[in-house]
Design a protein that fits this description.
alpha/beta; seven-stranded parallel sheet; 16 strands; 20% strand
Amino acid sequence: MTQKNDIDRMLLASRAASRALLELSEDRVNALLCDMADALESASDRILEANSKDLERMDVSDPKYDRLKLTASRISGIASDMRSVAALPSPLHRTLEERVLPNGLNLRKVSVPFGVIGVIYEARPNVSCDVASLCLKSGNACVLKGGHDAAASNETLVEVMHEVMQRHGVDSNAVILLPATREATAQLLQARGMVDLIIPRGSSSLIDFVRKNAVIPVIETGAGVCHAYFDRDGNLDMGAAIVENAKTRRVSVCNALDCLLVHSSRLYDLPGLCSGVMRHEVVIYADDRAYDVLTEVYPSKLLHRADSRSFGTEYLSLAMAVHVVDSIDEAIAHIACYGSGHSECIISDSEAASGRFSLMVDAACVYTNAPTSWTDGAQFGLGAEIGISTQKLHARGPMALREITTYKWLVKGCGQLRS
């Protein structure tokens, strides 16, 4: 009961802080974020010490280990993203639409914050800073609910941000970190009236749990089962480079490649397509046609026959599936069956093929001759991201400043009465 009351008090304080944020000028928010970025870099040793405690509790072979790990360069990257957010134009108070009715009423639709945004995430401490910077810039208070794997890292990052907020005279309750417990998660999902929006970032099981248990609106993000389709008109050298980059750049992120689809007319180019991932010792689960070709060249310890579980799996590790198709429409149908609506790509020199793929594939991001690893708010020029939305209502794809605002109508009259 004590923890429940404590969390209620934290959430109510966050609601009050969200109202205070409305009065901050854009210049003041930008200065706050820039000072936060400087403070994070200055506190690198302190942050890395906390992060090492978290890393000690996790098996190095766990796919989440790389997500959890912080380095001096990664902290600098977090700070750089925060400065990028500060440099972006404010998403608030934009006139989205304006018109005057025949009776003289002036209607103006303007962008405003949601209020309080709760973000539930797993072993990714950088999310604490990304979310805080995006929410502060967009006038939202944020409630952070990280996983126990990153508890020490998250606590230290939030402490550093709070120190800067206090120096700037900004209510630190605008960025709060809940205890890393399941009970805190359950309470956050039920906090109607105190929290306006929930965004889960993590595994499909986390997202499913949030969707089933929240009484607050939810935007689903994170889970990515990503495909690359090598078309009959694909360039082999380009295809091999795209497959390698999409699979091995960072294996534990949601935009990493999970399944390579190959047109049957290019079946014997499969060893070349997989040459890059072979150097990284990627495990391949291949269907029968792909297996028969790869078995001649791919290391036997890394090559397995695919089964019913091989497709539709988000591997988050040095593993992927390979499936041979007889047409572009079969590739599109495979993605429709097994994809998660995150990111998909086609490798083809045919404008007709890439046009059909782009039209028919239902995903937040569809690429032609580029890897799915580009799906990232910072890479899209959005500063940072609060998540990759895989749903269709309100926001889709990388969610940044504009996607975490809503709007209201401002109506100005001169005494008009409705008959």
